[in-house]
Amino acid sequence: MADTLSDRIHDVIASIPTGRVATYGQIAAMAGNPRAARAVVWVLRHSERLPWHRVINSRGTISLPPGDGFELQRALLLDEGVSVTPDGRVDLTRFLWNATGGN
DNA sequence: GGCGTGACGTCAG
DNA sequence: ACTGACGCCACGC
């Protein structure tokens, strides 16, 4: 039962479609707490089977520091068709996951 | 029940 | 647009 925030957050992240990205705040909001972005981080840090590379911050940039997953995340997104600049910036207007838009 | 950890978010300068 | 400072929440010990 997903009666804890972590479980719901986990489920939300697992629902992110390929070729799309979601922000921490968005995930937290969908899980029930718009301000629980930090909780999303905790889940990602403690989960191994999640599309963590599809999770980025509200600026639309990769949060991971270079050398610690940055390149991997960028490569995975590029492989899914998401345009990522060398700086790690993603165009949210084009790739942000629109879960309610039916898209 | 308090403290530290964690890939954040928002505002002000 | 970028950086720094403060606030936010959940989990393990």
CATH topology group: Arc Repressor Mutant, subunit A
| CATH H level, superfamily name | Winged helix-like DNA-binding domain superfamily/Winged helix DNA-binding domain
* Coarse structural class: mainly alpha
Radius of gyration: 13 Å
Query: What's the architecture in CATH terms?
Result: Orthogonal Bundle
Number of domains: 1
Number of strands: 2
Return the average pLDDT rounded to an integer.
92
Q: Can you count the helices? A: 5
Percentage of residues in DSSP E strands: under 5%
Contiguous low-pLDDT stretches (5 residues minimum) are none
Q: From N to C, what is the helix and strand string?
A: HEHHEHH
Question: According to CATH, what is the class?
Answer: Mainly Alpha
Give the CA-CA distance, first to last residue: 28 Å
Largest sheet: 2 strands, parallel
Shape: globular
Instruction: Identify the strand order in the major beta sheet.
Output: 1-2
Helix content: 40-55%
